[in-house]
Structures are given as structure tokens and as C-alpha cells.
């Protein structure tokens, strides 16, 4: 009984006291105490209202909390109007289990966070130095459950922040950012029902908004973050980009799981950037690239696994479908399946710089080569990977490729491309590869097989040059160490064979070179028709040892000529050193010709063959006759076949020295 009377006395006091207390009288005292506590100016307008019946009401206007002395902005926080109304009777009669807010409105709040050059900022002094730290939260003793809050119901009929502003100023960087026209409205705010949300703002005068619903948050304050929360939100930026998110978030506070769908309808990134008077961040060859972009996917998962399905990305005329999953994040397991119908990557590449005429050189200070940071492969050693990639049509560097299929896997630092196949220029290419990152420097092995690719249009599209024609076949095996191009060239090892059939070498007339010294090496660059060396077969076996390519028998066959090329190409230095040895072959003989005439023709051709030296660099190869070889052949032919030479070694006692003498002479001629 006494408890009942005490409660009613307290309620009566709460109702009556505000009727007799003049709040305005205490306004100067409130301002003084807040100023003293914060060390900065604090003022409230004259319209202060405090009431506890029939609603608990607190309202005021023109609140100003100043910045510390010496700051550019006068106010740290200002509020034009504040109005909060709570149903106090419902709270009391429910024995403190129900909080029902009629309205909570903040009009034109303004917060300025200013940082000085010396590091001082607007928050300094809000909490006084030397103030005692709050005691660490004590854990409930074993056997005794933690006390739960008595509040079971929390509702707000009207919650709004209108026309707010946040300003961030950093004098050390000369930077000022402003978020203005902030509006937040929550309708039907309660714990056990979805909350209607509307938010909008201007970030540096550019519009952003969020609209939709989310909830319920929980049955009561003790169960917030437990159960299923439905999400249906739409985010809009700059009046162009829109993203919708729908689905469920389950037990976010205890055992978070999610099942969500994201959808970004197609929009124009270029128009979006143009609307804010900003240049497009990527310079592309095609000024119409990125006119249309869209994205949608479904994602679900928990703390240990994430899965993406029904993925669709739209980029202009290209459609990419994808699925992916990731799990065991400490030792990630990643799988993906990507399918692209087609894309012209050249549209999205930076525009090529125009080559300046010779003699017109732009003087630029040579930048100092930055020391390359060592790559850490430890994360890759933990990764488990399984993936598939399919591309219908691909254009890159003007090269056209079709039907690309790649399967990749990785375990314990070893990644394998099990099969990579593609079609191009009437032929196909197949590859397998292994990347090993178990050691400090990565090791790579590649196997390539080329079948029936037309080489001429490929080189024409890739380099806009004409080097060689024909159907290409190849088997190549390569191994390399490192991740720097210079190191890779020096550690490149392998072997293989290139085979070109029924084609021609463009720009070189080998038949003319080996037949006529005077005319073959003085071809005019202004000739209307490019010189060429036609062949039925060009076979080039090679080995590569530490970046040096060697061939001991590259053979070119044509109806009247066969050449054997030996020598090497130094890949790190990009230099050439080859010798082309001509060997004329028998041709079909005109039946009208006599045997004597045919022999005479063969003899004539054989007498005028000229070896060719190929030197210089990859970018500037040089071709010249091997004069030493010509001289050697001429001396050998004339000296060894002369009557005088034969007469000397006709004698029985000198016959045994003939071969030794020939070898000695040949050795002298070969010396450089």
C-alpha cells in the first residue's frame, strides 16, 4: 500500500512541478554550466518548452555550441529547432516496459568538424583531460544470467531530421567538404515491424538518396539483431546510378547469415560524369565506350562461406554471366565460372599517342626507376582455386580470337591451366601451363600447340606489318623463373619447332640475294612490289638456353632453292646473329632442253650462290652477303679443282696429304 502511494505521489509531482517551474529562468544557468563543462560558448533560443502532461515534451530553438577559441568556424553544432514528445503515461503504466515516442524532430542541424594545421580539432575539450575513465564492464558471474532490459516495446510515430549539414574542414590539406540538404525520415519506427526509410543528401552539391524498408530489428531491445530482418532498399546516386537490394539478413548480432539480391539497372557512366561536370576517369580509344553498364547478382552466405549466383554484367554490347563461391577465409577456397559472349577490348584501351616525325623529339627528364617492391606470394600458397572461363569472341590489339575455353586450378602454391583452347585465323591454339609459387621466386612452365593458323593476317592485324605468309604449326615448350620481364628473359629455357607451309617471307628476296650479290642487297625501298621469298615449307627447330635462342637447322624449301639457317637470337639483348646457307635444288626440266643445256644451267646457278648474314637487332635487322664465305667457296672451288692443285697431289708420296692440306686451307679461310 505504501508503495502504491509513493508511486502516485511521484507521478503527481511529475505532472505538477513543470506547471510551476519557469524553465526560461534557468536558461542562463544551463548555458553557463554547459559552457563551463565544454570550455566553449553555448546558447539556446528563448523558445524552450518542458512539459510532462499529457505528453513528456522537450522543445527548444536556436541551439549553438561553439568551436574552441581560434577556430575559423564559430559553431561546432547548431540546431534551428528541436522537438521531442514521449507518451510518459504509457511508460509509467506499463511499469517501464513500453517507450512510445510521438515525435522526434530535428530541424536544420549543422555540424562543422574543423581540423587545424597543428592537429587540433573541433572535438578537443568536449571530454576534459584527466577525466576518469569509465570502469571496465564487469562480466556476469558464472551461474547468474546477465540482466535483461525491462523495455519490451519501442515505437516512434514520427522521426525526422530535416535540411541538415555536415562540413569537414582540414586546414593542413586545404580541404573542405560539405554534405548538405540532409533529410532522414523514418515512418512506423518500431522493433517488431519493418521500418520505412527515406534519406537524401547533397554530397558536394551532388544528389544521393536511399529509400525503402528494413526490419524488424527484434521483438524487444533485448532481442535486437536476432531473427530475420527483411531488406528492401533502393540507392540512387547523381540521378543516374541506381542499386536495388532485396532479401534477408538473419541473426546479424549472433550468427550472421544473409540471402540478398542486388540489381543495378543499366545506366550511362559517361552521362553520369557529364552531369556533374567531371571528365570521364578512363580515357578510352572509343569515346562511346561505357555508354551502358548494368549489374545484377544473388549472394548468400554466412561467416564461413559466400556464394554468388545468377550474376549478369552488361558492358555496352557485351554480356557476362558468372557464378562464384568463397569459403574458409583463413585458407580461402575460391571457385568461379565466367562466360562472356564477346568483347572488343580495344575500345576500352587508352588512345595511342601519335608518333612524332623524326627529328622532333620531346625533351623529358628521365624519371628515376623506382625500386620494385618484392611480391609476397604467401597468400597464394594458402589459396585453393577452381575456375572456368569461356569467351565467345574477343578482340585485343586488333587480333580476333574465338571460342576461348580456360580451366584453371590451384593448390598449395601450384596453379595449373589444365587446358586453354581458342580458335583464330582459320586455325587453333592449345596450351597448358603451371605456375609454382612455393619458393621465393615463381617458376612457370608453358606448353603450346599451334595448328593451321594463317600467320599473315595475324601479323597484319597485330603489328600492321607483313613479315611472313603461310599456314603455321608449332609445338613449343618453355620454362622461366621470376616475375620481372628482364629476369624472365634471362631465365627462359625450352625448345620447340615452328613449321610454315605454302607461304612466303615478305621483304626479303633470298633467291635474288643468293643469286646476285650486286642487285640483291640494293633493293629500293620505293619499289611498288615488295620483294618476297616464296616457299613450300619453312621448318624452324630451336632451343632456348638462358634467354638465347639457337637454331642449328632452320630449313626453307622452295621449287628452286633450299636454305639452311643457323645461328642465335639473344632475347635479353634483342640481337640477331644468323647465317643463311643457300642450296639450289633440281627443278622440273623442259623436255625440249638437251641434257647438256640442263647441266649447263645447273652449273651456272651453282656457281653464283651467295650466303646471307642476318645481324642487328629485333627492331632493326640487317641483311648482308657473307663475303668471307663467298671468298672461301670461290677459293675452294677454283683451287681444289685446278689442274695445278691436282697435279701436286697426283704423286703417290703426296696423295695422303691432300685431305689434310684442304682442311688446313679451309681452317685458314674460316678464321676471322
Describe this entry's structure for a reader.
The protein is of the alpha+beta class and 672 residues long. It is 19% helix and 47% strand. Among the domains are: 1-122 and 150-219, no CATH class; 466-587 and 595-625, no CATH class; 627-672, no CATH class. The protein contains 13 helices and 30 strands. The longest helix is centred in the first third of the chain and has 19 residues, at 2-20. The chain is elongated and about 145 Å long.
For the record, give the distance between the C-alpha atoms at the N and C termini, rounded to a whole number: 126 Å
Low-confidence spans: 1-7, 129-133, 523-527, 587-592, 601-608
- The class by helix and strand makeup works out as alpha+beta
Mean pLDDT: 82
Number of strands: 30
Biggest sheet details: 30 strands, mixed
Task: Report the principal-axis shape.
Answer: elongated
Helix content: 10-25%
SS field, number of helical segments: 13
Question: Roughly how many Å is the radius of gyration?
Answer: 42 Å
Estimate the strand proportion: over 45%
Main features:
30 strands; 672 residues; elongated; alpha+beta; 13 helices; single chain; 30-stranded mixed sheet
Give a nutshell description of this structure.
The protein has 672 residues and is of the alpha+beta class.
Amino acid at each position: 500500500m505504501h508503495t502504491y502511494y509513493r508511486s502516485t505521489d511521484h507521478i503527481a509531482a511529475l505532472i505538477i512541478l513543470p506547471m510551476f517551474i519557469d524553465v526560461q529562468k534557468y536558461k542562463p544557468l544551463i548555458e553557463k554550466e554547459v559552457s563551463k563543462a565544454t570550455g566553449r560558448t553555448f546558447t539556446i533560443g528563448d523558445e524552450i518548452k518542458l512539459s510532462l502532461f499529457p505528453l513528456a515534451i522537450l522543445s527548444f530553438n536556436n541551439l549553438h555550441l561553439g568551436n574552441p577559441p581560434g577556430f575559423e568556424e564559430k559553431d561546432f553544432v547548431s540546431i534551428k529547432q528541436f522537438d521531442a514528445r514521449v507518451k510518459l503515461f504509457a511508460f509509467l503504466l506499463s511499469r517501464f516496459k513500453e517507450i512510445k515516442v510521438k515525435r522526434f524532430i530535428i530541424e536544420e542541424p549543422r555540424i562543422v568538424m574543423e581540423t587545424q594545421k597543428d592537429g587540433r580539432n573541433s572535438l578537443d575539450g568536449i571530454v576534459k583531460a584527466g577525466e576518469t575513465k569509465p570502469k571496465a564492464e564487469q562480466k556476469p558471474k558464472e551461474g547468474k544470467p546477465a540482466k535483461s532490459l525491462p523495455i519490451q516495446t519501442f515505437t516512434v510515430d514520427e522521426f525526422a531530421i530535416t535540411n541538415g549539414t555536415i562540413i569537414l574542414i582540414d586546414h593542413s590539406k586545404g580541404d573542405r567538404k560539405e554534405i548538405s540538404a540532409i533529410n532522414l525520415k523514418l515512418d512506423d519506427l518500431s522493433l517488431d515491424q519493418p521500418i520505412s526509410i527515406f534519406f537524401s543528401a547533397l554530397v558536394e552539391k551532388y544528389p544521393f538518396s536511399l529509400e525503402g524498408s528494413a526490419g524488424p530489428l527484434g521483438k524487444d531491445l533485448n532481442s535486437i539483431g536476432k531473427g530475420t530482418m527483411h531488406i528492401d532498399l533502393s540507392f540512387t546516386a547523381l540521378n543516374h546510378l541506381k542499386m536495388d537490394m532485396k532479401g534477408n539478413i538473419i541473426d546479424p548480432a549472433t550468427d550472421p547469415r544473409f540471402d540478398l539480391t542486388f540489381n543495378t539497372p543499366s545506366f550511362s557512366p559517361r552521362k553520369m560524369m557529364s552531369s556533374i561536370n567531371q571528365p570521364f576517369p578512363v580515357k578510352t580509344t572509343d569515346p562511346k565506350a561505357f555508354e551502358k553498364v548494368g549489374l545484377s547478382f544473388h549472394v548468400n552466405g554466412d561467416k564461413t562461406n559466400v556464394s554468388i549466383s545468377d550474376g549478369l554484367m552488361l558492358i555496352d554490347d557485351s554480356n557476362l554471366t558468372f557464378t562464384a563461391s568463397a569459403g574458409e577465409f583463413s585458407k580461402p577456397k575460391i571457385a568461379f565460372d565466367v562466360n562472356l559472349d564477346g568483347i572488343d577490348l580495344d575500345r576500352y584501351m587508352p588512345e595511342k599517342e601519335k608518333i612524332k616525325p623524326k627529328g622532333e623529339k620531346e625533351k623529358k627528364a628521365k624519371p628515376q626507376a623506382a625500386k620494385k617492391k618484392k611480391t609476397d606470394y604467401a597468400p597464394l600458397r594458402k589459396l585453393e582455386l577452381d575456375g572456368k572461363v569461356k569467351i565467345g569472341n574477343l578482340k585485343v590489339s586488333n587480333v580476333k580470337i574465338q571460342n576461348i575455353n580456360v580451366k584453371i586450378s590451384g593448390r598449395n602454391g601450384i596453379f595449373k591451366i589444365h587446358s586453354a583452347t581458342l580458335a583464330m585465323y582459320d586455325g587453333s591454339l592449345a596450351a597448358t601451363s603451371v605456375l609454382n609459387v612455393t619458393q621465393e621466386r615463381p617458376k612457370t612452365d608453358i606448353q603450346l600447340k599451334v595448328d593451321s593458323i594463317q600467320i599473315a593476317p595475324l601479323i597484319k592485324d597485330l603489328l600492321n606489318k607483313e613479315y611472313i605468309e603461310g599456314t603455321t604449326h608449332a609445338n613449343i615448350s618453355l620454362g622461366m623463373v621470376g616475375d620481372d620481364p628482364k629476369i624472365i628473359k634471362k631465365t627462359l629455357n625450352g625448345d620447340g619447332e615452328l613449321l610454315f607451309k605454302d607461304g612466303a617471307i615478305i621483304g626479303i628476296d633470298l633467291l635474288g640475294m643468293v643469286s646476285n650479290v650486286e642487285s640483291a642487297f640494293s633493293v629500293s625501298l620505293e619499289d611498288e612490289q615488295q620483294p618476297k621469298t616464296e616457299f613450300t615449307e619453312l621448318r624452324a627447330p630451336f632451343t632456348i638456353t638462358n634467354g638465347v635462342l639457337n637454331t642449328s637447322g632452320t630449313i626453307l624449301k622452295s621449287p628452286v632453292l633450299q636454305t639452311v639457317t643457323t645461328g642465335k637470337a639473344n632475347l635479353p639483348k634483342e640481337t640477331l646473329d644468323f647465317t643463311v646457307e643457300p642450296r639450289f635444288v633440281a627443278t622440273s626440266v623442259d623436255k625440249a632442253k638437251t641434257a647438256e643445256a640442263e647441266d649447263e644451267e645447273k652449273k651456272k646457278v651453282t656457281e653464283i650462290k651467295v650466303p646471307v648474314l642476318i645481324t642487328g637487332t629485333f627492331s632493326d635487322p640487317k641483311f648482308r652477303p657473307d663475303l668471307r664465305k663467298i671468298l672461301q667457296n670461290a677459293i675452294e672451288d677454283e683451287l681444289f679443282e685446278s689442274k695445278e692443285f691436282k697435279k701436286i697431289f697426283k704423286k703417290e708420296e703426296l696423295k695422303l696429304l691432300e685431305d689434310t692440306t684442304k682442311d688446313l686451307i679451309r681452317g685458314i679461310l674460316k678464321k676471322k
